[in-house]
Amino acid sequence: METITTLHPSDQIVEFMNRIYQNSMTTTSGGNLSILDSDGNMWISPGSVDKGTLRREDIVCVKADGSIEGRHKPSCEYPFHSAIYRKRPDVSAILHAHSPALVSYSIIGGLPDTNITPLTAKICQEPGFAPYAVPGSEALGEKISCCFSKMYNTILLENHGTCNAGVSLMQAYKRFETIDFCARMLLGAKHLGKVNSLSAEQLAEAAKDRNTEFKAAEFEVKSSSEREIRTQMVKLIRRSYSQKLFTSVCGTYAARVDADSFLITPADVDRATIEECDLIMVKGFEYEAGKSLSSDTWLIKKIFDARSEFKSLIIAAPPSVMAYNITDTKFDPRVIPESYLLLREMPSFEFGAYYNDGAFFDTLSMRNPIVMVKNDCIISSGRTLLESFDRMEVAEYSARATIAAVPFGGMKPMNQDQVDEIVEAFNLIP
Fold first, then answer.
1. For residue range 348-392, what is the model confidence (pLDDT) as tens digits?
2. Is the C-alpha dihedral spanning 280, 181, 49, 239 positive or negative?
3. What distance in Å separates the CA atoms of residue 413 and residue 167, rounded to the nearest whole number?
4. Residues 6+ apart with CB under 8 A from 212
5. Are 84 and 146 within 8 A, CB to CB?
6. What is the CA radius of gyration of the chain?
7. Are 317 and 377 in contact (CB under 8 A)?
8. Rounded to whole angstroms, how far apart are CA atoms 9 and 306?
């Protein structure tokens, strides 16, 4: 399988610019991407060209000797790209964009708190902040590169946007997308109450490897039923990404194949382009050799072992639901009949509950098919993959609606009589 990082720099820039634009994280005229190749040439997006229709022939090459090749002028921001590459020899890709959530922070002179979840802390680490200077100026290049020289990989530009660096454009994009999700969570949470961050001890606990019992193994040729499950999973994983429920590297799907085996998403595989062959078969405590096991594998197995009725599970961190998860405000699923029907009460647990809290595994059930874990995730279960996906999607849309209702005085939930009618009409577990 050809990955994005093996493509020519021009194709990589087009691929990621298209993704950024389609995900509403930049505008037609905003943002620029670059890649420094092994010959010292910088490939960069052009200036004054529609970012929504960018093609590979639009990409400009600034040669190592300073000469420029291409049908357009390079982005006016290329001086700061050059300055970063000079000061950070470990960097080979730079991404600059104007996502609304991150611009919100840049115009108030603030930084998102990346310690709100283990994933945002791990991927983004602590962001930096570069003071304002005129776009395209040498002064801006100096301020941004000085910030990156302090070994930040993500920085916010005052009254401008964000800039992310990495060893590849995929890594830079991963950092950009993750901190954008982080900012969206925080902006939603500001409507709900005080934001709770994780301590260093909690982050260290989350970083522990709990997959030590699993061993790589070679498996037989896949059955037709397993192949069908792989196809269904890939379709819904990509759909979860397009619906902005997942980031490119965050979000776990798992589906039973039989009583003792399941398929699970791997670690560090792009959710937007994942393929059937990327998924990992787990049988007992053995998993497909040559693949990177998800850090959630131990938890998925523990839940499947405890609940034979579950056929699929999703672990995710959609930004609106997570806005509740990082505050003390309880999410009330009694929004519309559909939300209560699919979500029920959606119980919430403290961070780390699934490490050693038996009540967590007793609660997650067909009666309570989706639960929240503070500063971490939601876990959605189902009898089918589509049912688990539906619950996750409805949870995010319902949370988004309730946050939007806050400035109008908050939502008026369905009353108990209305809830009882739904339970009776749809024969739900009381």
1. 999 999 998 789 999 999 999 999 999 999 999 999 999 999 999
2. positive
3. 48
4. none
5. no
6. 23
7. yes
8. 47
pLDDT score, position 357: 77
Joined together, the tokens standing for residue 190 give 């500001």
Structure tokens at 12: 């990589």
How many Å is the maximal CA-CA distance in the chain? 75
| Residues across the chain | 430
The pLDDT value given to residue 52: 87
Burial class (CB in 10 A: 0-12, 13-18, 19+), 28: exposed
Alpha-carbon distance 331 to 399, whole Å? 7
Q: H helices within 243-309, ranges in order? A: 297-306
Cα 95 from Cα 22, distance rounded (Å): 16
- The whole-angstrom separation of Cα 321 and Cα 156 is 25
CA gap 176, 181 in Å, rounded: 9
370-373/348-349 β-pairing: parallel
Q: How many helices (H) and strands (E) does the chain have?
A: 15, 17
Q: Is the dihedral of CA 214, 174, 245, 208 positive or negative?
A: positive
Instruction: Enter the tokens of residue 170.
Output: 């995929």
pLDDT of residue 2: 47
CA neighbor of 349 nearest in space, from 378, 323, 321, 320? 378
> What tokens does 112 get?
């998102």
Would you state the pLDDT for residue 332?
97
Q: Where are the alpha helices (DSSP H) in 196-316?
A: 200-206, 224-242, 297-306
User: How many angstroms separate the CA atoms of 231 and 279, rounded?
Assistant: 10
